[in-house]
Design a protein that fits this description.
With about 120 residues, the protein is an alpha+beta fold. The protein is about 25% helix and about 50% strand. Strands 1, 2, 3, 4, 5, 6, 7, 8 and 9 form a 9-stranded mixed beta sheet that branches. About 25% of the residues are buried.
């Protein structure tokens, strides 16, 4: 039986998921990474997609949009710009992650428009 390790999925708004897992599979900009207990310390950039957290009795699927993955001292942290637990498999999570990316892009565009308008009013 694989040894458990601590996993935290965190977004700026909240801790999305926290608990012990036996296996984490996440998508990075370099490709998919599988993580088990006692993994080498690693830092990676998360790609928009899904992360799968296997706790032994269940699998939690998380849609993530960007961020970082850290593996250190038997603890895995996924720090994501936007993350959400989804019902379903990796394909459902990837579709949700695409929606999260689109929402992020829309928010960024709105902020840029507001900044331009504020600059124009101050002149």
């Amino acid at each position: 039986m694989p040894s458990p390790f601590q996993v935290d999925v965190v977004s700026p708004e909240a801790v999305v998921w926290s608990g012990e897992a036996e296996l984490v599979i996440a998508r990075t900009t370099e490709g998919d990474i599988g993580i088990m207990a006692e993994h080498e310390p690693t830092m990676a950039v998360l790609a928009t997609g899904s992360a799968s957290i296997q706790t032994g009795s269940e699998t939690v699927t998380v849609a993530v949009h960007g961020g970082f993955l850290q593996i250190y001292r038997n603890q895995v942290t996924l720090l994501s710009d936007r993350a959400e637990i989804v019902e379903g498999d990796a394909e459902v999570a990837r579709a949700k992650a695409d929606l999260l990316r689109e929402a992020e892009e829309a928010d960024t565009a709105e902020e840029a428009d507001a900044a331009e308008e504020a600059d124009a009013q101050s002149e």
